[in-house]
Write a structure and sequence with these properties.
Elements lengths: L1 E11 L5 E4 L4 E8 L1 E6 L2 E6 L2 E5 L5 E5 L3 E10 L9 H10 L10 H16 L6 H25 L9 H15 L6 H8 L3 H12 L3 H19 L4 H7 L5 H12 L3 H9 L1
Helix pairs in contact: 1-3, 2-3, 4-6, 4-7
């Protein structure tokens, strides 16, 4: 794990203020006191008091202050393969739990202690050389990720059988929120608690597309927006939108829009 940036903030009198954006790093955002909304990839998550959010790379996010005073910390980091980053569906569900957690009930006191330890370390950042501080903070963040995965697994809900339209609608919202991330059909099926082949049939019946066809549409639409409005290179846009390689991105983009990404950008920008 490599720490990119971190911060500890105490904001007074900034109701309605916003902080956030898009960056190619994972992020942990901890609300310590106050009320706020996290707008993450088109979904608003409410926090009233203590809350911990996991933000995936290349996903738009804004923290909106809802109380007179707000205290929080954040840490952006590059996660290595060996780091205990929870699965995409686990992160999505974990963020949805925030605002409704009883922090006095087991096992949350252990997580709360780890949250405050990380925050205290950030407040004392200047007392350590950067390399020592970065190593210590990375250790604290790994602990938090391990606890998130373990707690989320223990809280795994029983499958709820709902109508096909509701299942497909929820699947679409899930894909819209996490489309930049590496996804497998099994990951999507785990989110819905349905068999993968059944989910594909259900999704196609409701939309005329497979889940991965819809996912590709989301990625291509996002890529077209980046090409028209951002200074990012085609390679950077390919990665930001979840494509495994620039060659696959270029081939898929040309099949969808009729021209290569660079040519599409040139024509649109005049």
């Amino acid at each position: 794990m490599k720490i990119r940036q971190n911060g500890f903030a105490e904001v007074v009198g900034g109701v309605g203020g916003r902080a956030g954006g898009v960056h190619p790093y994972c992020e942990l955002l901890c609300i310590l006191d106050g009320e706020a909304d996290l707008e993450w990839s088109g979904v608003a998550y409410k926090a009233d008091g203590l809350a911990l959010f996991v933000i995936l790379p290349n996903t738009p996010h804004q923290l909106v202050q809802r109380s007179h005073a707000l205290r929080y910390w954040y840490a952006e980091f590059h996660a290595d393969d060996a780091d205990p980053l929870p699965a995409v569906d686990v992160i999505y569900k974990w963020n949805g739990l925030q605002g409704g957690i009883d922090w006095e009930a087991d096992p949350y006191p252990a997580l709360r202690a780890a949250l405050h330890a990380a925050g205290m370390l950030m407040k004392a950042e200047r007392s350590l050389p950067w390399d020592m501080f970065g190593e210590a903070l990375a250790s604290d963040l790994r602990k938090l990720l391990v606890l998130i995965s373990s707690i989320a697994a223990a809280r795994k809900p029983a499958p709820v059988h709902t109508s096909g339209e509701v299942v497909v609608s929820e699947t679409m919202r899930f894909l819209e929120s996490v489309f930049p991330q590496p996804l497998t059909l099994q990951t999507i099926a785990d989110y819905t608690h349905y068999n993968p082949s059944y989910l594909v049939r259900l999704f196609r019946k409701q939309t005329g597309l497979t889940p991965f066809s819809y996912l590709n549409e989301l990625r291509l639409n996002a890529a077209s927006e980046y090409l028209q409005h951002s200074p990012m290179t085609v390679q950077q846009i390919s990665q930001a939108c979840g494509f495994q390689s620039i060659h696959y991105f270029s081939r898929t983009f040309k099949k969808r829009f009729g021209v290569a990404p660079s040519e599409w950008r040139r024509v649109r920008r005049g």
